[in-house]
């Protein structure tokens, strides 16, 4: 994974599970190899990295693991909601939990969707396509 972005082709992923990172990266690559997925395994580092990106190079999509070290996906969204520069970027929370409470809390914060992580490889492609449906090109 590289850290060079293109304004409309960059997806930033907050995920600490290497298998989920690789499966999602492969799915996006299969759909359209011009998408670049940058994975950051820690909530605080995710926000710090995002803050270093110039406005013209901001990601087209943010995917946030609900349960990630230091700041959860929901805590990341709360922090990003305080900054106008991030409001137009679609945010997706994904989690191993299908809890209606977690989903409702996430949607209430304005995320585009709350997705339960798939248990089979084939579903990663379907989910990646669904995630890309929120990107405004």
UniProtKB/TrEMBL annotation:
<dbReference type="InterPro" id="IPR011006">
    <property type="entry name" value="CheY-like_superfamily"/>
</dbReference>
<protein>
    <submittedName>
        <fullName>Response regulator</fullName>
    </submittedName>
</protein>
<feature type="modified residue" description="4-aspartylphosphate">
    <location>
        <position position="65"/>
    </location>
</feature>
<feature type="domain" description="Response regulatory">
    <location>
        <begin position="10"/>
        <end position="132"/>
    </location>
</feature>
<dbReference type="InterPro" id="IPR001789">
    <property type="entry name" value="Sig_transdc_resp-reg_receiver"/>
</dbReference>
<dbReference type="GO" id="GO:0000160">
    <property type="term" value="P:phosphorelay signal transduction system"/>
</dbReference>
<keyword id="KW-0597">Phosphoprotein</keyword>
<dbReference type="InterPro" id="IPR052893">
    <property type="entry name" value="TCS_response_regulator"/>
</dbReference>
<dbReference type="Pfam" id="PF00072">
    <property type="entry name" value="Response_reg"/>
</dbReference>
């Amino acid at each position: 994974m590289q850290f060079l972005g293109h304004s409309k082709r960059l997806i930033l992923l907050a995920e600490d599970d290497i298998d989920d990172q690789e499966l999602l990266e492969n799915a996006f690559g299969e759909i359209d190899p011009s998408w670049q997925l940058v994975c950051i395994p820690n909530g605080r580092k995710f926000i710090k990295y995002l803050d270093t990106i110039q406005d013209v190079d901001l990601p087209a999509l943010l995917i946030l693991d609900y349960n990630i070290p230091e700041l959860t996906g929901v805590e990341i969204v709360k922090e990003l909601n305080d900054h106008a520069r991030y409001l137009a970027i679609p945010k997706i929370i994904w989690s191993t939990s299908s809890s209606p409470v977690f989903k409702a809390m996430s949607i209430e914060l304005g995320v585009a969707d709350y997705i339960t992580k798939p248990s089979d490889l084939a579903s990663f492609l379907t989910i990646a396509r669904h995630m890309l449906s929120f990107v405004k090109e």
